[in-house]
Specification:
7 helices, single chain, 3-stranded mixed β-sheet, alpha/beta, 199 residues
Length: 199
């Protein structure tokens, strides 16, 4: 753990599964037991074992919380294969996270296994006395229920009062990125302006 974490400070690691450049058409990226942003990457694209990464920081004295963000599997898969601009308007760099359909699906299955393993191996975030814990956040639930859902998450993490009358947390504007991948129905069923045809 960093010196800040050892002194009781807060450190946030945002780990995508996988992280790094574009995917290979031949093999899954390697899975590493822990990730340290201050060390050079040995691999261009990699997976991080969420369980061992969390336990490693807990072993160094930190209270390590794995916040596992779950997203609709079909939309997650589609988003990996969409070509987008990773550069700027002036210096565009068009690419996709993974243009190979079978490998994109295989990577998602491997990522789901790592997240599922963490839910089994690590106690819930509200477990008393545990130093390595987890909580699951549903992207779709956050988009649907906003601050009311986020209040539940914060309560489980011990970051918000648990009283029924406690105020809702203030959230910034949240853009539902899923809409980019279901554009054909966004103007209809999703925003409720018209009923599904035939229904």
């Amino acid at each position: 753990a960093s010196m800040a974490a050892r002194r009781g400070g807060t450190e946030v690691h945002h780990l995508s599964l996988p992280s790094g450049g574009g995917c290979s058409n031949h093999s899954l990226p390697p899975t590493v037991p822990a990730f340290n942003a201050s060390q050079p990457l040995e691999f261009q694209r990699l997976m991080v074992n969420v369980t061992s990464h969390t336990l490693a920081y807990a072993a160094l004295g930190a209270r390590a919380v794995a916040i596992l963000v779950a997203r609709d599997p079909a939309i997650s898969l589609r988003s990996k294969q969409i070509v987008r601009n990773f550069g700027t308007a002036r210096h565009p760099r068009h690419s996709a996270h993974c243009m190979y359909a079978q490998m994109a699906a295989a990577e998602n299955r491997a990522a789901t296994r790592l997240l599922t393993d963490a839910t089994v191996a690590l106690p819930r975030a509200d477990a008393r006395g545990a130093r390595a814990v987890h909580t699951v956040v549903s992207y779709e639930a956050l988009m649907s229920f906003g601050a009311a859902y986020w209040k539940d998450v914060l309560e489980e993490l011990g970051l918000w009062p648990g009283e029924v009358a406690a105020p809702l947390p203030t959230l910034p504007f949240l853009k539902n990125a899923n809409e980019d991948y279901v554009r054909d129905v966004v103007d209809g069923v999703i925003d409720g302006r018209r009923a599904p045809e035939g229904g």
